[in-house]
Predict the 3D structure of the following.
Amino acid sequence: MIKIKKEIINLTDHNIPSMNELEKKHNIKRIIKMNYNENLFGCSPKVNEWIKVKNDIKGFIYPDMKPKKLLDSISKYWNVNNDNIMIANGSDAIIDLIPRVFLDEKDEVIVTDLTYGRHANTAKITGNKVNIIKQLEDYNYDLNSILNAINSNTKIIYITNPNMPTGTYINQKELYDFVEKVPKNILLVIDEAYCEFANANDFPYKTSELIKTHDNILILHTFSKFFGLSGFRIGYALSSKYLIDAMKKTYQPLSTNKYAIYAATAAINDRQWYSDMKAKAISEKEYLYNEFAKLNLNFIKSQGNYIFLITKEEKWENHELRMFLLVNYSICIRNVRTIGLRLTIGNHKQNQILISGIKAFLNKESEKNVK
């Protein structure tokens, strides 16, 4: 029998549900997916238009290693140079790459407790120690505790802003002050997968400027969320040329397919459509806030396209609401340990169905408690 590394054995299975299997099991025609933070408003129609134009894509020819139109578009979008950009097969591919490029055997990383788990897992896979810092009681980052946790072996600090699954965020002053306190020999990875959904006045919208003055910052972006291209699997990193060049040396070349490149180029250049979409998403977020408040549900106002319900004080269990919504309303939502549930913000019809389902569940629970 082949021996598997202990670091792999100790990892938790992804346990990602198959929508086809769930639909078949529960006799559901089509599930409303509110569990993966996909953009339920879709993507720019120009994406499909461009792909139709490019139907003669010459699949027997590899994609361009340096897709100039996309690089130029990202460069313009963030006001950085092309040399500061690395395009990959989803930002997860870059997350997987980071420990392999920057961590030696005894190096350690710092992550926060309730956040995107891939950051910690990639360091565990390479056998590095992961120091986990608890969040504050309001689920915000405890930046002071992160700084206090730095030791001589610390090599990487991961920050997700807005944070996922909580939707909390580090404002511009907090982040910029934090950046100045992080030692220059420590890589600060800022995962901004959901930043384009943010609407707070003090959100740090121009962190790309930091890479011009700090060569220890790496910023992650994806086309999966805001741009609605989850199925295409394409993302990118912004950083100093020094760090980008190092990562490109070890990354598998030609890994991003042509359709993804075309789709991303079309999407990032359709500013008006995405501006209109964002306004709809914010409006629907406010609708859900109001409805959750009427139902006396505890939730966190979010800077992402999802809302975190805090359920740890409820008399019912997370799995009870999840199964009720799935079986009776064809809605799939995401469990977050035993403390909460994460729900993707959908279009108005989807959100109305969600609220109807939650109301029905709470009424059922209320009647049960009376008995």
